[in-house]
Design brief:
binds magnesium ion, 13 strands, alpha/beta, Alpha-Beta Plaits, Ribulose 1,5-bisphosphate carboxylase large subunit, 401 residues, binds 3-phosphoglyceric acid, globular, magnesium, TIM Barrel, 5-stranded mixed beta sheet, 8-stranded parallel barrel, 2 domains
């Protein structure tokens, strides 16, 4: 396969035939526009897009569109997106259109991809043999704590048993919690927790910033001792993530949050499905990526989610698999449903579900780990809670019978 293929669901405007709507996408994103052109040369034909397949589906249609590989500038993700996720969404002849997936040819998959990937992160934490799900938390309240209090929360979560701690997606380098000071305070506590527990614990500092500043911010974070970086990829842009993995030799994992994705991924008839966005994160070097939950607080399709997680792990141009992250509205009583639905290759993250525990963060972290241990031992959370107080109190608080 040498060209790039994109799959779209669409509903044509009432006065537009589906085949004309599909052709409109192919033309708009390659060499055409709304009318014929006096400036067109014969040789331009080599870059014409085409409709390869079209069939009715649900209330609309699904089209497979071919984009000649030569239209793309190898390695330039913003330009890729301008083609297969560009003007088409605004075409008047479409009442709705959703990019479902992309098939990229080898020559356009010219990226290093993740440095660690799921297996590398597992080796860091020491779960490459057990294969158990990782447990993570998000410092809460999401903003407002001082560096010292942030570090206290991180310490309690770490000794309670989490493998991974992250900043929330809106915390970066604000005056109330300067990044450098926060990193030093948190890493000091994590070093202490690692000494006490004998476990490796990752703290992902959110370095989201302007694409041309993010490398410098990452270097600053590493200088202050960060052992994991976090990027909000939709708000920063794939260029920011690419810059990290291609411009600097970082030797720490990159955790990718997808805040703002819901504006594109949520509606089943219009926008961009998570799958193409996830493929681009893998190409751009994300080691871990939020993809959604089976039972959490965000709207989603469990079937789409399961498939999205699979494509992060399946063979893809020899790139390392990405660790999927389930986060948003989880607590120990939801762990069983998440692992049953998504498997053990998952990072289960809880913010409120840990820091809202009746006995506080450390007990909340213990309760999450107990819920995972229960699953790994083939027991329900309720059975395991009979002799694990932290889990029992979590189930009681969140009404899990
Ligand atoms: O960034 C995240 O993943 C969310 O803030 C999760 O927070 P919650 O577990 O409290 O929903
Ligand atoms: Mg958050």
């Amino acid at each position: 396969m040498s060209d790039l293929f994109s799959y779209y669901y669409f509903r044509p405007r009432s006065d537009t035939k589906p085949e004309d709507a599909a052709i409109a996408i192919a033309e708009e994103e390659t060499t055409g526009t709304w009318t014929d052109l006096k400036t067109r040369k014969d040789y331009v034909k080599a870059l014409d897009g085409s409709v390869e397949e079209l069939h009715a589906e649900g209330d609309g249609y699904v089209a497979k569109i071919r984009y000649p590989a030569e239209i793309f500038e190898p390695g330039n993700i913003p330009q890729y997106l301008s083609v297969f996720a560009g003007n088409l969404f605004g075409l008047g002849r479409l009442d709705a259109v959703r990019l479902l997936d992309i098939d990229i040819p080898e020559k356009l998959a010219c990226f290093e991809g993740p440095l660690f990937g799921m297996k590398g992160v597992r080796r860091l934490i020491g779960t490459d043999k057990s294969g158990r799900p990782h447990v993570g938390t998000i410092i809460k309240p999401k903003v407002g704590l001082t560096p010292k209090d942030t570090a206290e929360v991180a310490y309690n979560a770490a000794v309670g048993g989490v493998d991974f701690i992250k900043d929330d997606e809106t915390l970066t380098d604000q005056a109330f919690c300067p990044m450098d000071e926060r990193i030093e305070a948190v890493m000091g506590k994590i070093d202490r927790a690692q000494g006490e527990t004998g476990r490796k614990i990752l703290y992902a500092v959110n370095i989201s910033d302007r694409a041309d500043r993010i490398v410098e911010r990452a270097e600053r974070a590493l200088e202050h001792g960060a052992n994991t970086l976090m990027v909000d990829v939709i708000t920063c842009g794939y260029s920011a993530l690419q810059a990290l993995s291609e411009e600097m030799k970082i030797n720490v994992p990159v955790h990718v949050h997808r805040t703002m994705h819901g504006a594109m991924t949520r509606m089943p008839e219009h926008g961009i499905a998570m799958r193409p966005l996830a493929r681009l994160v893998r190409l751009s070097g994300g080691d871990q990526l939020h993809t959604g939950t089976i039972s959490g607080k965000m709207g989603h399709s469990p079937e789409e989610l399961k498939r999205d997680n699979e494509i992060l792990k399946e063979d893809y141009f020899g790139l390392k698999p990405v660790f999927p992250v389930a986060s948003g509205g989880l607590h120990p009583g939801k762990v069983h449903a998440e692992i049953s639905g998504l498997g053990c290759d998952i990072v289960l993250q809880a913010g409120g579900g840990i820091h809202g525990h009746p006995d506080g963060t450390e007990s909340g972290a213990r309760a999450m780990r107990q819920a995972v241990d229960a699953y790994m031992e083939g027991l329900t959370a309720q059975e395991y809670a009979k002799d694990h107080t932290e889990l029992r109190k979590a189930l009681e608080k969140w009404g899990v019978r």
